[in-house]
Amino acid sequence: MSEQLWTFGVELEFLLGEAMPGTKQTDARVVHSPPTELTKEEHDDEVWAQKGEITFEAEPTWNNATAHILKTLTEAGIEVERDGSGGDFDAPDLTKWQLKSDSSLEIYPDSNPLYNKYAWYQIELVSPAFWNSSSSYQEVRKVLELLNSTYLLVSNASTGLHVHVGTGTKAGPSFELLKKAGAFFYAFEPQLTTLHPENRQGGSYAQTIRDTSRFSMKRQSRPQAYGLQPQRPSKKNVLY
């Protein structure tokens, strides 16, 4: 029997800080990207501050910031494109990194004074579909180290790291393999949960399969059918 070959991909979520024009900066990392060629109409659609407060040439924009990231990664030999799906219904190019916006990421101005000093962009960077190999891990590490050393990045309770696993085929993993994986994750979920930071344990973005999967919900609704004893409410919770 041949050994199963695996693929993986990662989704990196982070906030990128960019300085407003005219502010004095001591951070060695790039915090204000040079403007790209935009029409006045395109610029007005992308500005973060009110029009007229900052000059057109210096205004930080999503287009400028992401263009700078694309240039940095490309010069380092990383194949990347912005919003590479080409539309909501088109499949992305799985051979390249994809640079996207993620509106689910949140900025908490009251939690850190750093948030009030910069304009922030909600960034999601999706890797290609890699074969499970040391060279693939090295490319992910290279991208992470390059971004962290070049830009002012912040992660918080709203940002996450997603890892997708596949077999590199259209058929995907076999049903037997999925059953074994499901049983493993169900059995060891408490231990696996400890790998995540506390704010990603059991939250809305990472609900437990023991509590919210269809199998678990059915077991909870019909415990005796599964050889379980129904849970009885404690006396202190009973209303008379």
Distance between the termini: 64 Å
Radius of gyration: 23 Å
pLDDT < 50 stretches: 39-43, 45-58, 233-240
- What summary fits the major beta sheet? 7 strands, mixed
Mean pLDDT: 77
> What structural class should be given to the helix and strand makeup?
alpha+beta
Summed up, the helix count is 7
Helices and strands, in order, run as EHHEEEEHEEHHHH
Strand content: 15-25%
What is the topology?
Elements: E1 7-19, H1 40-46, H2 62-75, E2 80-82, E3 97-101, E4 118-126, E5 130-131, H3 134-150, E6 152-154, E7 161-166, H4 175-187, H5 189-193, H6 209-212, H7 214-221
Parallel strand pairs: 2-3
Antiparallel strand pairs: 1-4, 1-5, 1-6, 1-7, 3-4
Describe the structure.
- Mean pLDDT is 77; it is low at 39-43, 45-58 and 233-240.
- This protein folds into two domains: 7-170, no CATH class; 185-227, no CATH class.
- Strands 1, 2, 3, 4, 5, 6 and 7 form a seven-stranded mixed beta sheet that branches.
- It contains seven helices and seven strands.
- Helices cover 28% and strands 17% of the residues.
- The protein is α+β, with helices and mostly antiparallel strands and 240 residues long.
- The chain starts with 6 loop residues before the first strand and ends in a 19-residue tail after the last helix.
Index terms:
7 helices; alpha+beta; 240 residues; 2 domains
Q: Quick recap of the structure?
A:
This protein has 240 residues and is of the alpha+beta class. The protein contains seven helices and seven strands. The protein starts with 6 loop residues before the first strand and ends in a 19-residue tail after the last helix.
